[in-house]
Design a protein that fits this description.
Blueprint (H helix, E strand, L loop, with lengths): L8 H7 L6 E5 L5 H14 L7 E5 L2 H15 L5 E4 H11 L11 E3 L1 H14 L9 H13 L4 H7 L3 H19 L2 E3 H14 L1 H8 L4 E4 L7 H10 L6 E5 L14 H4 L1 H4 L4 E5 L7 H11 L20 E8 H17 L7 E5 L5 H11 L3 E3 L9 H14 L4 H7 L9 H14 L3 H6 L9 H18 L5 H11 L2 H7 L5 H21 L5 H10 L13 E5 H4 L4 E6 L16 H15 L2 E15 L2 E4 L4 H4 L6 E4 L43 E4 L3 E9 L6 E6 L3 E6 L6 E2 L1
Helix pairs in contact: 1-2, 2-3, 4-9, 5-6, 5-8, 7-8, 9-10, 9-11, 14-27, 15-16, 17-18, 17-22, 22-24
The protein binds a DNA duplex through α4, α9, α19, α21 and α26.
Length: 723
DNA sequence: TCGAATTCCGTTTTT
DNA sequence: CGGAATTCGA
């Protein structure tokens, strides 16, 4: 079978493009991934050595699948297919002198980085009400993505907040270096710096590949843009593919200009547009296209399909999230009776917490499902605990790991002892473990503490001397550290599940050993650090897939549910203040809709439990942007709602009075209520305030609604009016 | 120092 | 509501 079979002329044009830069602007469902894999196969057929081809994908899962497809097409596996992050880690490890700590560095994930930042804040005695460690982390992350060094950031810091962040950035970076650790952003940061400023490094890597292909180019940030550009500098055979309408990572530093200005960067670039959609029915595509047309910051283009109209997109308003989940379950069963399998079905949501209700209802009903993301496997407490020991074996200077391992399970090393140890380490510029080595002479410690430290010291020594495969080491650590014994005797209600997870960790190490014969514990840990949520997900099982819209990027399902379409949730509060924020949310919705092949259900709830409180919500503005002729409105029970063509409401079932889907207003936070006030609520009607407590955005009002009951509402969300 | 009890606080989205 | 941080008694 030829690589070009069943391809459209535009696809063939992209696949067979010769040398020189090329931009493939590919709409949703236009066969973009297939074009890239086919192009790789084509290049190999044309005699390009496979090891001279580099393909960069967005996730490791996509990388694996792409490699597999190339193998099927031309029986070749020596192509380098990887994500930016994995690739950068490999580049740094292959260049021993590239960074100060050489090639033996540990990769900190977001949680490790956060605890490091917390430690820095503590050390600097910064304790602000207003700035969370996470917000400081985000600012530092953005700075790194923009390639701002500590010095540059310091010189640009204007206000008090920025100057504070600058201090943290400096200390954080120093700690990372001392710990021989890199966070996610550092991987890109260092490689981008080296590619632009270090001649030997650049020369080596820009000659390494003859062809560079980058997928999801619309989601690259500045550092990634530079890395890609320099990697392809020698031959200029760069092929970028993406879709500006699917740019959904602006908050992470992704710069949509990278794709919009590709033609400026490469004036001789060939541009191929793939505008035929092969994935969705006409009705689904119509909904997607009409909604995205509301974005102003956009290149005008229209996708088309030659496929059938298909079923209308079904829109359902439920009273609350519980009913919404039940409605989804009911429609799922309906879909099954018309021939779909569980595995054909996906449920999307904007934020992770929404998965809980859906999960609960599906579980109650006994429907099989899999959640992609949420508390990912490697983020579980017990896993991170054991990983801390493993990381310490690979990199004894990893203080974040040392801090975690030293008293888990508890072995008599409390905060006092730990503080003394840290003082010692800081005074002599030691790592925590180095300070531990001389802990016998540590001043101000009691005999008990010294003994406890000695126990831990010999434990680490014992574990370090153990040799074996990654799986054997993991197993050894779980047992020797006393962790499993501690877990078994603990009162943790999830202890059995946790023990199973630890078993699963050994299994995954064993799988790594099998897959990577020349692997090491370090290799395993690196893989663990860089796996994404979606990488873990394997389709094929006959189960319903639950995931965030972000995680759904690049996937497709015959049946799709997009849930929680409410103002404040989708679009999300934090994005609603700016027009560009709303536009990114709209692109996100566009991504969600275009995942569907045959059947699309969109749902929203009139109220939702948030922070343990019922918070009312209006239908999302995006719902009003959908074309009426492609929509069918349904009750939560699946009955069609006959309504006038121009309707203002989506969610009226119980009450006759319509809730006007007007855009959420801002409510003055100071305008509080008192007991006895008579108020009106858009859903619950008239009521009397029983109690009002809290301040600012956390103000809580308890209201008794005659005939409805007593409700606890958050003033920030509740649209309460004084009567 | 430990662990149970209590309070606090959060939610975008993720490599 | 549910996990993390903090407090407090032993």
């Amino acid at each position: 079978m030829s690589i070009l079979d069943n391809c459209t002329p535009a696809q063939v044009e992209a696949i067979t493009h010769g040398d020189g830069p090329m931009l493939v602007v590919a709409g949703a469902g236009s066969g973009k991934t297939r074009v890239i894999t086919s192009r790789i196969a084509y290049l190999i057929q044309q005699g390009v050595p496979p090891w001279k081809i580099l393909a960069i994908t967005f996730t490791n899962k996509a990388a694996g699948e792409m490699k597999e497809r190339v193998r099927t097409l031309v029986g070749e596996a020596r192509v380098w297919v990887s994500t930016f992050h994995s690739m950068c880690a490999r580049m740094l490890r292959q260049s021993p002198d590239a960074i100060d700590c050489g090639k033996d560095f540990t990769i900190y994930d977001a949680a490790d980085s956060l605890s490091c930042i917390k430690a820095c804040l503590k050390e600097l005695d910064i304790d602000s009400e207003h700035w969370t460690p996470a917000s400081i982390q985000a600012v530092i992350s953005n700075a790194k993505n923009e390639l701002q060094t500590v010095e540059q950031f310091e010189s640009r810091a204007g206000n008090f907040f920025e100057r504070t962040v600058a201090k943290v950035y400096r200390l954080y970076q120093a700690r990372l270096q001392q710990n021989h650790s890199l966070d996610f952003d550092d991987l890109l940061f260092y490689v981008a710096k080296l590619m632009t400023e270090d001649t030997p490094f650049r020369e080596h890597w820009s000659r390494r590949f003859d062809y560079v292909l980058i997928d999801e180019y619309q989601d690259t940030n500045h550092a990634q843009y530079l890395i890609a550009r320099e990697l392809a500098a020698e031959t200029r055979n760069i092929c970028a593919t993406g879709d500006p309408d699917q740019s959904i990572y602006g908050w992470r530093g992704a710069d949509i200009r990278n794709i919009l200005e590709f033609e400026k960067e490469y004036s001789d670039a060939k541009v191929v547009k793939l505008e035929e959609n092969f994935r969705s029915t006409a009705n689904i595509l119509k909904v997607a296209e009409q909604v995205i047309a509301n974005n102003t910051e956009r290149i005008d283009r229209a996708l088309y399909t030659r496929g059938e109209a298909g079923a209308k997109v079904r829109l359902t308003g439920a009273d609350d999230e519980e009913q919404e989940a039940e409605a989804i379950y009911a429609r799922i069963q309906q879909m099954r009776s018309s021939g779909y399998r569980y595995g054909d079905i996906a449920v999307f949501y904007r934020t992770n917490f929404q998965s809980r209700v859906i999960e609960r209802v599906l579980g109650l009903e006994g429907a099989p499902y899999v959640i992609v993301g949420t508390v990912e496997f490697y983020n579980r407490k017990e896993i991170k605990d054991i990983l801390a020991y493993l990381r310490l074996l690979v990199n004894p200077r990893d203080d974040v790991a040392a801090f975690r391992a030293i008293n888990t399970p508890p072995r008599g090393i409390g905060s006092q002892t730990l503080a003394a140890l840290q003082d010692e380490a800081r005074r002599y510029n030691f790592s925590l473990l180095e300070a531990l080595e001389r802990s016998n002479e540590l001043p101000g410690l009691g005999a008990r503490a010294i003994k406890a430290l000695g126990t831990f010291r010999s434990l680490i020594g014992e574990i370090a001397s153990f040799e074996g495969t990654a799986a054997e080491i993991v197993d050894h650590v779980i047992k020797k550290s006393g962790y499993i014994q501690w877990l078994r005797t603990s009162k943790d209600e999830n202890r059995e599940e946790r023990e199973e997870n630890l078993g699963e960790l050994v299994t995954s190490a064993a799988r790594y050993d099998e897959r990577t014969p020349d692997g090491s514990l370090q290799g395993f840990l690196e893989e663990v650090a860089l796996v994404s949520q979606i990488d873990e997900y394997r389709d094929g099982d006959d189960r319903i897939t639950l995931m965030t819209v972000h995680a759904a990027k690049g996937l497709e399902f015959p049946v799709v549910f997009v849930s929680g379409m409410e103002e404040g949730l989708f679009p999300h509060h934090n994005s609603m203040e700016s027009e560009s924020g709303v536009q990114e949310e709209r692109r996100l919705f566009y991504v969600a809709v275009t995942r569907a092949k045959k059947e699309l259900f969109i749902t929203h709830a009139g109220s939702r439990m948030r922070f343990g409180m019922i918070t009312p919500a209006l239908p999302s503005r995006f719902l009003r942007e959908m074309p009426a002729e492609a929509i069918e409105k349904q009750t939560p029970y699946g009955e069609e709602i006959e309504e006038p063509a121009v309707s203002k409401t989506y969610a009226v079932r119980r009450r006759e009075k319509a809730v006007a889907p007007e855009i959420a207003r801002d409510y003055p936070e100071t305008d509080t209520f008192r007991a006895g006030d008579v108020v009106r609520h858009p859903t619950f009607g008239r009521g009397e305030v029983v109690e009002c407590s809290g301040a600012g955005s956390r103000t809580t009002v308890i209201v008794r609604f005659p005939g409805v009951g007593v409700k606890r509402l958050m003033l920030h969300y509740a649209k309460l009016e004084k009567v």
